[in-house]
Amino acid sequence: MNIYKYASPTMFYPLAGKMIPWFAIPAAILFAAGMYVGFFIAPTDFQQGDAYRIIFIHVPAAWMAMFLYVLMAIYAGVGWAFNARLASMMASAIAITGTIFTLLSLVTGALWGKPTWGTYWAWDARMTSTLILLFLYIGFISLQSAIDDTRRADRAGAVLALVGVINVPIIYFSVQWWNTLHQGATIRILGKPTIAPPMLAAMLIMLAACWLYSMAVVLIRVRCIILEREQNASRFAEVNA
Amino acid sequence: MNWPDLSMGGYGFYVWGSYIFALILFVWEIVSLKQRRRALRQQQREQQRSSSVSPSVLTGSANETTS
Amino acid sequence: MLRWIVWRDLTLAWRRRADMLSTVFFFVIVVSLFPLGIGPETQLLRSIAPGVVWVAALLASMLSLGRLFANDYQDGTLEQLLLTPQPLFMVVLGKVLAHWIVSEIPLVLIAPLVGLQFDLPRETLAILVLSLLVGTPVLSLIGSVGAALTLGLRGGGVLISILVLPLYIPALIFGAGAVEASIMGTTPAPHLYLLGAFAIVSLIFSPWATAAALRISVE
Lengths: 241, 67, 219
Prior knowledge:
The structure holds 3 protein chains of 3 kinds.
Chain A: H1 9-41, H2 55-81, H3 85-117, H4 125-146, H5 150-181, H6 197-240
Helix pairs in contact in A: 1-6, 2-3, 2-5, 2-6, 3-4, 3-5, 3-6, 4-5
Chain B: H1 12-50
Chain C: H1 2-15, H2 17-38, H3 42-74, H4 77-83, H5 88-116, H6 122-149, H7 156-184, H8 189-218
Helix pairs in contact in C: 1-5, 2-3, 2-5, 3-5, 3-6, 3-7, 5-6, 5-8, 6-7, 6-8, 7-8
């Protein structure tokens, strides 16, 4: 069986359609399981009380924001290097989901910050880097939507995503540097509460749930993109026939 | 199974607020995708009605055309 | 080839001297707005000076980036440049160098005057100039990637800003950090070294990315 035929958008479309329920349903189940373990089994934290339970959605969201950006850059790079249209479409499909997780990470981080540190926004290294990640996602989406020619949009996005991915460690390092310089006299107790096994389990289950959800949603979106491009192509062909 | 303190020790707004916001985002994403797909399928049907030849992912023909 | 490109761009820029000056005026105006908005209290101004001057430099650079490739793109010269047997890397490097001389060096030169508005001591003014001298190449280099990607697109200047400003952040942190260290009395050396390292990395990688982006935008 030739697996490379699925590199063609036309062939991938029905395959993707069949795959979606296999991601969506386990995602829903794992979300329920994660919430159960997180709220019914994990104990109340000694330091932070019940407010810590936000981490079961905050930490997975933050990780997904990072993973998806890297995945997006890889797909975009592959699409550019091998002239593989489907890979570029996957990159474009991932972008919005990545932005949503980044936004979720920022908001839940702020809601976690208020009860634990007393302020919604504390300019710590991790949250500031996440904010910059949001800007990078928005840049990618803005660039692609400003370019009408899909081929140019795919490739330009690839350059931007690759430049971004190389810069992310540099940005993170510089933000950490900046943060330690400006700590000042107040010592803040940041970070997660002491991890009891049920807490870790709940976080991992929720992370898996977010992964599966992302896969399902990205596949749905890439099918829309395939349809859109095909329609544009046939309209183009008709006009020029 | 022990029922958790639903007020979350007074932090209910923050904890439930986070999960509700997450739910809103996920629902928005799924609903907007469904709308996008519905609009595209409708356009496709209109296109197929007006033109005779249109190889499509939905009719299963695997011709590689001018894409 | 490199020398020829730099000379050509400098000559063209000289014929449009007003553009050069407008970048500097923008820089000065933006910096002056902050005390007007915040208040004239000297202690406060001294503490915000590094950040304000650096952010103003970032913004002024953004404005000048649009001109980097646009004029050549419009009259077809860019396409010709892409066809030459010379490596595109060198062409890009030449244009970026010219841009740095025309748009960034004036900022470096006027920085001491601007720093006086914030009552910075003399040693700090020197560090300010040094940080900008080391940091502005980064602004031109990374900015050129954004300029190349957005060639011919509507939304122009704002789009470049959205793409490039996040990538400027390390330079901002190290550059402003150096000036701030000088105000505090600690050594600015680590900041300047990191800024220099970032500049060298940009010098090696950005022209390559810009060249790739140019090919993508022009074809």
